[in-house]
Design brief:
- This protein has 382 residues and is an alpha/beta fold.
- The protein has twelve helices and twelve strands.
- The protein is globular.
- The chain starts with a strand and ends with a helix.
- The chain binds pyridoxal-5'-phosphate.
- Pyridoxal-5'-phosphate (PLP) binds next to helix 3.
């Protein structure tokens, strides 16, 4: 059966051009980048070139880029690392209730270590209220971590405004930009970002490789100690193929951003319009305007999202109920509950996230099957 993939916020397929650049480093070019002979040195050069490309794309310095094992590690490294290193300056951190578990659970760890964490609740549309944010700043606030794009509802936060305020007060500002890369023209200078997390497999790169950008003047303690890799800041023999693939995937993402966004948005908008037209008693979750082009998160009253997911799976359709990271749990999404949705409406949500390779035909098939599935499940519930 043909797979119709509409879960691009969970992961994306690897691009052919990315895989092609990686293959030599998985085969003949296997040397350890720390070795002094040519077989190793060449790989070190490949890493340096990838680092330079990524730094140029996000407008950072080369020595502000660190390779990690993914978005989760980057979030941990940055949040724990900056908080612990700067503890003497203050013990207060601000984040939001709708962050990814990698951020929320890093915050929980810091709370156990004695930090005070403020969890901002967004407005009903999923966007942080800047006035509310300002009210929570204190003299002991050292770190703010607010995600760029939410993985469940796709809302885009006012990152530039938050960054500007943090810069003004000398507070470090981290953003989990995992869902923004490839869709928003992320420029760390323009947005006043001090630290940023990204993950390759969310922008058509390989899994298990991520990037932390940490501004030069920001001190942090290491998450992973060991050898001298990554200028002594993140130990472990480098994932050379992954690093090379990440640079290629990010290059593609920036180069084709406008074209891809236009195409993806057309499919997403068509899906929303048709679902609204054909299915009564639905709720579209998250702001409609300040929203990444990929995302449609809709609650279908009277059903359980997970059951619709299973119906769609029979036809080879991949979508998500809540976020993939919390799939398997029967708990309603913490993001949707934060917006003020009831437990039932939160459980009734289905997230569809479009990608650059989706087609109109696939989308029409999806819409038909969602309509069929919702009708079937609603009848059953009666
Ligand atoms: C996927 C995701 C992560 C985790 O990235 P991994 O590379 O899978 O560890 C973190 N934050 C957000 C917003 C994500 O969507």
């Amino acid at each position: 059966m043909d797979i119709k993939y509409f879960d691009h916020s969970a992961t994306t397929p690897i691009d052919k051009s990315v895989l092609q650049e990686m293959v030599p480093y998985l085969k003949d070019s296997f040397g350890n980048p720390s070795s002094s002979y040519d077989l190793g040195k060449k790989n070190k050069e490949a890493i340096n070139l990838a680092r330079m490309k990524i730094a140029t794309l996000i407008n950072s310095k080369v020595n502000e880029i660190y390779f990690t094992s993914g978005g989760s590690e980057s979030d941990n490294m940055i949040i724990k690392g900056i908080a612990i290193a700067n503890r003497r300056r203050g013990n207060h951190i601000i984040t939001s209730t709708i962050e990814h578990p990698a951020v929320l659970n890093s915050m929980k760890y810091l709370e156990k270590c004695g930090f005070k964490v403020t969890y901002l609740r967004p407005r009903e549309n999923g966007i942080i209220n800047i006035e509310d944010f300002k009210k929570h700043l204190t003299k002991s606030t050292i770190l703010v971590s607010i995600m760029f794009v939410n993985n469940e509802i796709g809302t885009i936060q006012p990152i530039k405004e938050i960054g500007t305020i943090c810069r003004k007060y000398g507070i470090f500002f981290h953003t989990d930009a995992v869902q923004a890369m490839g869709y928003v023209n992320v420029d760390v200078k323009e947005y006043n970002i001090d630290a940023l997390s990204m993950s390759s497999h969310k922008f058509y790169g390989p899994k298990g490789i991520g990037v932390s950008y940490i501004k030069e003047n920001v001190s942090f303690v290491n998450l992973i100690d060991g050898g001298h890799q990554e200028r002594d800041r993140r130990a472990g023999t480098e994932n050379v193929a992954g690093i090379v693939g990440t640079a290629k995937a990010l290059e593609n993402a920036y180069k084709n951003m406008n074209e891809n966004n236009k195409k993806i948005k057309a499919l997403r908008d068509y899906y929303i319009v048709e679902i609204k037209r054909r299915i009564p008693y639905i709720k579209i979750n998250g702001d409609l305007k300040d929203r990444v082009v990929t995302n449609a998160n809709i609650s279908f009253a009277g059903i359980v999202g997970d059951e619709l997911l299973k119906e769609l799976n029979k036809d080879g359709i991949c979508v998500s109920s809540g976020s993939a990271c919390s799939a398997g749990f029967v708990n309603p999404s913490h993001v949707l509950l934060s917006l003020g949705l009831s437990k039932n409406l939160s459980k009734a949500a289905v997230r569809v996230t479009f990608g650059k390779d989706n087609t109109r035909e696939e989308t029409e098939f999806l819409i038909d099957k969602v309509e069929e599935g919702v009708n079937k499940l609603r009848k059953k519930a009666k």
